Every structure is written in structure tokens, then in C-alpha cells.
Amino acid sequence: MTLGYGPGWQWDPAKPLDRVAHEVALDWEVRLGPRYEWARYSFAAPAGEHAVLKITPVEDDWADHEADALLFWRGRGAVRLLREDRSRRAMLIERCIPGHDASAIDDLEAIRAAIATGRELWRPADDRVFRRAGDEMTRWLRQLAERTDHPYVAIAAARFAAIGPRHDVLVHGDYHHHNLLRHAGRWLAIDPKPLIAEPEFDVVTLLWNPLHLAVTREVVERRMRQFTSAGLDERRLRDWAVIRGTQLGLPLEPGEGAATSRQLAVVRWLLE
To answer: What predicted TM-score, i.e. pTM, was given to this entire model?
Structure first.
């Protein structure tokens, strides 16, 4: 048979994910295109005309249940899972065409698209399969408190204790403009980090995205109004934004670098 890569594809046998991708492409008889630039931690590249091959590293435990979530959604609000090999953490998933993400359109429309697509994703699921956001957040906040005395950590912990996290539906877990792609006249989510939570937990990551757009107080408040107009709970939105903005904005491990200003800026505005 022909090699499992096409024009523009170059693989580096010294890179573990490249080696796995090369082996899987040969086994599944798919031709790989150039690796996507946005795939910084995982491997992702076109596999033929209508699919993408994705390989996730073992240390990325956030991705442990990505295939389970895609199977659960079955193309409703998210790309379809076409084939998988769990032993090699390999997935063949539906390729979005034209594939531009929601950061390429007017932000009002992007938030509307995210809410509409989210309503397709946010459905009750089995918490014996998926992790519960409340359990994960308890662990994350405890780890943060052990590593930093930043004042937002205590505030986030108090908000989390008071909010009483709900575990109503399966959520994307990393929901933002860059993970929402256009496909055949509709929007589909990619790259989920699925958790059992609530819609308010899921949408707050849209507040500090997309990366190229300056985050301002006015933009944040306008997006909050869009969320509440769509029926989401404003108090829970604000609490989750403070909690998740702190959890994601502060470095967890020593040497990870400075705090993420975009996320903590949103927290600061919501606390003022």
C-alpha cells in the first residue's frame, strides 16, 4: 500500500505523537496532510478529504473522555467520531469544511452561535462515565491554595462553596470561539474536555476569548447580557466566571509563568 501521508506531510520519528500518527495512518490507510498549527499539545492533521486524525498525549488527562463525549453527542452540536483506538489514544474525527472558527465572525453572532450550539450539547449524561465538575474544581482549588496565596483563590473558594455546583448536563469543558467551527452551514464544537456540570459553567470561558480580540469590561458585560437574555442565570454566571477565571488564570505549577492577565482581568471586573 502507499505510505500514510500525502503532500506537505512531514513526520519526525523523534516525536512520540508523530510516530503514533504515522503508525495509525498506515494501519487505517489514511493519507495525512500537514499538521494543524493550532495543535500545540496533541497531534492533529487532515486525514483524507473528510476526516482529521487526532492523537492525544497520555499526560493530557483532560482528553481521557473526549471520544466518549463525541460518541454521546453523535454529531449533534459536535464533530462525529468516525474511528478510535484507545490503546494509542487515536481518533479519526469528522473534518469541518470550510472549517473557520467563530473568532472569524462578528462577536455578537459568535456568542449567539455558541449558545445555540451549546443547547445541542448540554444534555443529561451518565456521571459514571464522565467526571463531575464539582469534584474536579474541589481538587483544582485545593491545589491552587497549596501553591499560591493570591487573594482571588480564597474568593473563588468561597464562591464555589456557596454556589452549590450543579451536575445537570454534559458540557464541553473548554468552550470558546476557537473550538467552534463552521461545517456545512452549521457550527460544530471540537476538542471537548467533557464534564458533568451546568451551562453556566461552560459558557464563561467565552468571556476571555478569542485570543486576538482585546478583552474589555464592555465586551464582558455585553456577553453576560447575551447569556442572561438566553435564559442563563446571571448570579451563577458571575460566580463561575470568578471561580474558573481564577482556576485557569493562575499558574498551578511553579515555573509555569505569570498569571494569565485576560482571565484575571475578567475576574477583577466582576469583583469590582
So the answer is: 0.92
